[in-house]
């Protein structure tokens, strides 16, 4: 059974993940459900009953949604440009997308602090362009946080979309044109559906990274603004409240798993040609 | 009266290299015209200019009296069947064919009805709900044709649509497609490097070479009376001998070749460099009758081809003298034997030598 023997190749990874990841995770999970009187969900009911917790969950999701949307808005055209470019131009674009990944996130967050300051280039630029009467406050605002985080996570949106776009035959769009489809119709009915799996996985990457980011909100927002990730960090590092920290960590974990599983399901469903058409048989589906 | 499709002076260069050098072509309504030429002759470039997928550097294209230059491809009413078919992989067969109708805002029920009708025309009626990846090459080609025709284009362009199919299927599809287009009265321009395809399908053939059209004529005339040495060499088999005109007797020239003097119709100044061409089925074994051209040549190979036999004779040119016979070869015709060959002078083609014009 060749198949089974090949399976053993996964052993190092399984062993490593088991020791370095699953075990601590189980320990963490156990801290959230094991009180002084044994098993108890009191931590969760207590946490979820507190309106402050819901503000934190709201902060986490709202910022992640905005970051994901901004990344998609900037990332999709970037991916198209990257896929259409040839030769040196493409290499240069690719380096421009990938190279920032090698700069530590702390460095980038500090750089954004400088950019977002009232006397920073962004605020001053808006004034110079006449888009703002006076330098707007950006640092320690959600807008600033979204801008900074989107910058850091952008490559995770661009690369999956780019890798799919590269596989799309440019003749498909030409074929659409000769059939009478306008550029916007071609975009909606050809390019978008064909790259949707890339968009879904890019969005899943950015969203998961955004809900769990710790350094960026700490540096760009400070303590007044808490997300699940920063609250977890604070609970363990500052408040020494392991019960609260493990509870918020588990809530965050459940969110992340839901995103990963949900997007994988979505990508598979969209990626299958004709799949959606079978589901609603009487109508000739215009897109699958 | 102006032609239905009227191309004048179409020119295109890529990076300083002229790919198309001012081409004129007129196609009548309902006509099937092939652009025939080797790869790189500019035929696909011309097709893409007509479709609006490429902007010409110079020249005009008019379709049904309207200038096309300013129109984007989606407003031209010009359908294209691509070489790789370019079917939409995320759509079913039925939705591929209905795509153009949906894009034009045709109601869903109507679009489905029309798509079904065109799928039936290409014998793919039962395939509408299937994904296109599940189709064979021939089936994909049928779907691509149905998709292009379903929107009722004024003009259909076909870019080497048979090149990915095996020979048997290709021959069947050629005849099928030709019949379908004739029934629908579709005007079509067909790009191919395959002379057999062009001869089988076309009302007229435009032979292209190095960015120019060398000859436009019906298949029969193209085969029997090629206008240039290139057209002679590119379409069908032929024996070609280089020679120099020694005498012009008013429409009947004598050419000195490696096989001696040969006569044929034509008007050339004595001293002109020419190519003498003979079709293989015109040559017969044996001594000439009065007025025939005759040569004596050494047999090199016999190639059995089922319904006919091909005899290759050693020549001083780089290509052999080729004879095709349906009645077999004379006794004693074995490789190495010297045989008499002859053909009517009237069937001799005397053309300006390529590159000496």
How big a fraction of the residues of chain A is strand?
Answer: under 5%
Q: Tell me, what's the shape of chain B?
A: elongated
Count of DSSP H/I helices of chain B: 8
Q: Outline of chain A, from the CA principal axes? A: globular
Please, what is the oligomeric state? heterodimer
Uncertain regions spanning at least 5 consecutive residues of chain B: none
Characterise the protein shown here.
The complex is a heterodimer of chains A (288) and B (357). Chain A has 288 residues and is mainly α. In chain A, 75% of the residues lie in helices and 1% in strands. Chain A has helices spanning 2-7, 11-33, 42-49, 51-84, 87-98, 105-116, 121-128, 142-165, 170-178, 183-211, 215-220, 228-237, 242-271, 275-279, and strands at residues 34-35, 38-39. Chain A has a two-stranded antiparallel ribbon with strand order 1-2. The radius of gyration of chain A is 23 Å and the shape is globular. The model of chain A is unreliable at 273-288 (pLDDT under 50). Chain B is of the alpha+beta class and 357 residues long. Chain B contains 8 helices and 20 strands. Chain B has helices at 43-51, 93-103, 108-121, 137-150, 167-184, 195-201, 219-224, 229-234, and strands at residues 5-14, 17-27, 32-36, 58-63, 66-67, 78-81, 155-159, 187-192, 204-209, 212-217, 239-248, 252-257, 260-265, 273-278, 284-285, 292-304, 309-313, 321-325, 338-344, 349-352. In chain B, the strands form 4 sheets. A 6-stranded mixed β-sheet of chain B has the order 6-7-8-3-9-10, with helices on both faces.
């Amino acid at each position: 059974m060749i198949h089974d023997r090949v399976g053993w190749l996964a052993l190092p990874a399984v062993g490593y993940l088991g020791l370095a990841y699953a075990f601590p995770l189980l320990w963490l999970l156990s801290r959230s459900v094991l009180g002084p009187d044994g098993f108890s969900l009191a931590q969760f009911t207590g946490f979820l009953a507190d309106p402050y917790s819901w503000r934190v969950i709201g902060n986490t999701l709202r910022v992640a949604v905005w970051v994901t949307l901004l990344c998609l808005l900037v990332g999709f055209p970037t991916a198209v440009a990257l896929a259409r470019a040839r030769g040196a131009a493409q290499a240069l674009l690719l380096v421009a997308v990938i190279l920032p990944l090698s700069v530590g996130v702390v460095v980038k967050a500090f750089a954004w602090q400088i950019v977002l300051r009232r006397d920073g280039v962004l605020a001053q630029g808006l004034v110079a362009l006449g888009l703002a009467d006076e330098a707007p406050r950006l640092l320690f605002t959600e807008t600033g946080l979204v801008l900074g985080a989107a910058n850091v996570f952008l490559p995770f949106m661009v690369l999956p979309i780019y890798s799919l776009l590269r596989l799309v035959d440019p003749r498909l769009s030409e074929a659409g044109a000769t059939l009478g489809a306008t550029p916007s119709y071609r975009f909606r009915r050809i390019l978008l559906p064909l790259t949707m799996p890339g968009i879904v996985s890019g969005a899943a990457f950015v969203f998961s990274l955004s809900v769990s980011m710790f350094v960026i909100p700490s540096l760009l927002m400070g303590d007044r603004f808490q997300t699940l990730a920063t609250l977890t960090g604070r609970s363990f590092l500052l408040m020494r409240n392991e019960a609260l920290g493990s509870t918020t960590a588990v809530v965050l974990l459940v969110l992340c798993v839901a995103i990963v599983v949900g997007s994988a399901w979505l990508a598979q469903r969209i990626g299958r040609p004709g799949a959606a058409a079978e589901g609603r048989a009487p109508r000739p589906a215009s897109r699958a | 009266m102006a032609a239905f499709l009227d191309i004048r002076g179409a020119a295109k260069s890529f990076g300083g290299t002229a790919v198309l050098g001012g081409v004129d072509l007129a196609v009548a309504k309902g006509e099937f015209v092939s652009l025939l030429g080797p790869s790189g002759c500019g035929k696909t470039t011309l097709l893409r200019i007509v479709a609006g997928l490429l902007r010409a550097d110079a020249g005009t294209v008019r379709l049904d009296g309207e200038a096309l230059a300013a129109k984007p491809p989606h407003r031209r009413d010009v359908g294209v069947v691509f070489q790789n078919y370019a079917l939409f992989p995320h759509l079913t067969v039925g939705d591929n064919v209905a795509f153009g109708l949906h894009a034009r805002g045709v109601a869903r029920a109507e679009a489905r009805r029309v798509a079904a009708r065109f799928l039936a025309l290409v014998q793919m009626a039962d395939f509408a709900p299937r994904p296109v990846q599940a189709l064979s090459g021939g089936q994909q080609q049928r779907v691509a044709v149905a998709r292009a025709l379903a929107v009722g284009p004024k003009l259909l362009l076909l870019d080497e649509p048979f090149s990915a199919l095996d020979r048997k299927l290709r021959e069947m599809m050629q005849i099928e497609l030709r019949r379908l287009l004739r029934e629908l009265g579709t005007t079509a321009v067909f790009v191919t490097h395959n002379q057999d395809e062009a001869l089988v399908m076309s009302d007229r053939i435009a032979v292209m070479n190095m960015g120019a059209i060398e000859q436009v004529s019906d298949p029969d005339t193209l085969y029997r009376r090629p206008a240039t040495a290139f057209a002679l060499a590119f379409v069908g088999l032929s024996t070609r001998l280089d020679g120099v005109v020694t005498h012009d007797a008013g429409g009947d020239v004598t050419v000195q070749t490696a096989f001696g003097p040969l006569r044929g119709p034509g008007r050339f100044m004595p001293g002109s460099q020419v190519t003498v061409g003979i079709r293989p089925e015109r040559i017969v074994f044996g001594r000439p009758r009065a007025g025939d051209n005759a040569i004596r040549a050494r047999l090199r190979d016999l190639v059995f081809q089922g319904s006919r036999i091909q005899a290759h004779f050693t020549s001083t040119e780089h290509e052999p003298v080729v004879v095709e016979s349906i009645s077999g070869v004379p006794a004693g015709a074995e490789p190495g034997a010297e045989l008499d060959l002859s053909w009517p002078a009237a069937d001799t083609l005397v053309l300006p030598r390529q590159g000496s014009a």
